[in-house]
Structures are given as structure tokens and as C-alpha cells.
Design a protein that fits this description.
The structure is a single chain. By secondary structure, the chain is of the alpha+beta class. It has one domain: Glutaredoxin (3-Layer(aba) Sandwich). The chain has helices spanning 10-13, 53-78, 94-109, 135-143, 145-158, 178-187, 193-205, 214-223, 228-236, 241-253, 276-291, and strands at 3-4, 34-36, 82-89, 114-121, 133-134, 173-174, 258-259, 261-264, 268-271. The strands form three sheets. The chain has a five-stranded mixed beta sheet. A two-stranded antiparallel sheet has the order 1-7. A two-stranded antiparallel ribbon has the order 5-6. α6 packs antiparallel against α7 (193-205) and α8 (214-223) packs antiparallel against α9 (228-236).
């Protein structure tokens, strides 16, 4: 499912999805690259405070084996092909939140390829005032009261298994998400786009926070370990506003009219909050196609 929008990066903007691998399925509204580890790391060994000589020897042997296994695992990972995966999304889109959690499950099960993940902006309601708009009036105008109820039931049903606790009753404001997308953009410099996106989704859908409010965004930035004074200074300016909007426009030029959408290798487009198995088949097919080009 995807959410449809109501009626840059120049290199990225020129990419054209291949029609032979662009399975646009049931659409429903749902910078530096961020590497996402697709292999679990080895846990540290637990040691008791007092160890017998035998346990020390065993522990040292285990450490040597662990280092050897880590070295082999790292070497294997370094030799894997790398695939760029752009996630085109809006942080007030419930299907994008579902799609993000399903992507997490897909990446956890993925083998044979390393994924460089980048989050790209897409504003569903770019004309929303920066202070936000009344949510109930906005969605009732678009869907009708019965339509809103049915839509929310469908979303909660689709979210089963994702551990998302949608609290629609707590969401009072439809925020303008421009500044939220700017925060995600800045988080790329520290490899935290994915974590920031998760925090923004949760703040909006589970906690009912206004993620258009700079104070809320700075709170989220601090919780994720970003440089809050730096973020505050960046919010005071508008140097990257045009670049953020250009990335949004680039997605639309690619034919993205609903989110979430996934762009693999800059060429292959998949729409909708897909199941993990389907996402992994898409990633593998894209990898194979790119390998022979």
C-alpha cells in the first residue's frame, strides 16, 4: 500500500527507472549514504568476576576463535556487492512507517549483498502552513468521516506484526514535514538517517508529537545523539531548503506519485509497503540486473 499525493541532487534526478523491473503493485498512501548492516555482529563473552585457571584458558581460546571468526566475517562482508537503495518517503505517511518496519525485517534476512541506504524526501502536503494544520478537518475533508475510520482500521490491520502502536487519537496536527526532511538529510553525515526516520515516525504516530515543531525536532536529534546546537543553527537558516525540495521534485520526475517507494541502484523502482520477502526478491533481482549491465 502507498499514500498518493494530492493533486537536488541533479545526478539522482536524471535517473530513469527501468520498466522491466518496476513492479508497481497495489499503491496505497502509506547524503552521504547510510550503510545498514545486514549481518548480526558477534556478542561479547560474559566473564564472571572470579575465574578459575581452567575458565581463563577456555575464555582466551574462545576469544581467539571469536577474533578469527570476526576477521573471516568482515572479509566476507567486504567482498559482497554493494547496492544503493533509496527510500522515498514522508514521515507523516502511515504506510511509510509500515514500509520502514518491513524493510527492517527484509534487511535483517538479506544475504549476499551490502545495502547502502539513503532516505529521500517526499512531501504529501507541501502547502501545509509551517505551523501545521488541524488534522481532523484536513482528513475529513479528503476522506469523509466514515472513510477516515475505515482507513485507520485498514492501516492498523496492515501493521500487524510490525509492532507499531498507531495512536491516531493523539494526533491533532498535520505538520509541514519540510524541516523533518531536513533533519533526516543532516543525519546522513553521521550515518543516522535510518534511526532519525524511525524516531520521527514514532514521535508522530505513536506519541502524537508535532514533528513540524523545531523544538520537537531538536529533542529527537538529541535523543539520537546528533549535535543539537549545530542542528539549531541549521534550522535558523535555509541553505538546504532548495536542495531538499529538489530531491522531492526528482522523485516525482521518476514517476513517484505515492509513498513509500524504493529505488534500487538508481534504476529499478518499487512502490508500496511490501512484505519483507517481496522486498528481498526485488533487491536480488535488481542486483542481478545491475551486475550484467
Amino acid at each position: 500500500m502507498t499514500t498518493r499525493a494530492p493533486a537536488a541532487d541533479k545526478t539522482w534526478a536524471k535517473r530513469t527507472p527501468s520498466p522491466e523491473l518496476a513492479p508497481v503493485t497495489n499503491a496505497v498512501w502509506p547524503f552521504k549514504s547510510v550503510p545498514v548492516s545486514i549481518f548480526s555482529t558477534f556478542g561479547s563473552l560474559f566473564m564472571a568476576r572470579t575465574l578459575t585457571l581452567f575458565s581463563i584458558l577456555c575464555h582466551n581460546k574462545a576469544k581467539r576463535e571469536l577474533r578469527r571468526e570476526k576477521k573471516m566475517s568482515q572479509a566476507e562482508t567486504d567482498n559482497l556487492p554493494v547496492l544503493q537503495l533509496d527510500v522515498i518517503s514522508d514521515v507523516i505517511c502511515p504506510w511509510c512507517f509500515i514500509g520502514k518496519r518491513k524493510l527492517d525485517a527484509a534487511l535483517a534476512a538479506l544475504e549476499g549483498v551490502q545495502i547502502n541506504l539513503m532516505w529521500r524526501p517526499y512531501q504529501l502536503y507541501p502547502d501545509t502552513p509551517m505551523e501545521g494544520a488541524d488534522l481532523s478537518a484536513k482528513i475529513k475533508e479528503r476522506y469523509g468521516e466514515d472513510g477516515v475510520k475505515q482507513m485507520r482500521e485498514n492501516i492498523k490491520a496492515a501493521a500487524k506484526g510490525t509492532h507499531i502502536n498507531f495512536a491516531f487519537e493523539n494526533i491533532k496536527i498535520t505538520p509541514n514535514t519540510l524541516n523533518a526532511h531536513r533533519l533526516i538529510r543532516w543525519a546522513a553525515s553521521t550515518g543516522q538517517q535510518h534511526a532519525i526516520a524511525e524516531a520521527l515516525f514514532s514521535a508522530h504516530f505513536e506519541q502524537g508529537k508535532n514533528i513540524g515543531d523545531v523544538a520537537v525536532l531538536l529533542e529527537i536529534a538529541g535523543q539520537q545523539g546528533l549535535d543539537v546546537p549545530l542542528m539549531a543553527d541549521l534550522f535558523k537558516g535555509d541553505n538546504d531548503v532548495e536542495a531538499t525540495r529538489n530531491d522531492d521534485a526528482a522523485a516525482r520526475e521518476l514517476g513517484v506519485h505515492g509513498v513509500p517507494a524504493f529505488l534500487a541502484g538508481g534504476k529499478f523502482l518499487l512502490m508500496g509497503a511490501q512484505e519483507p520477502e517481496y522486498l528481498n526478491r526485488f533487491i536480488e533481482k535488481a542486483r542481478q540486473k545491475l551486475a550484467v549491465q
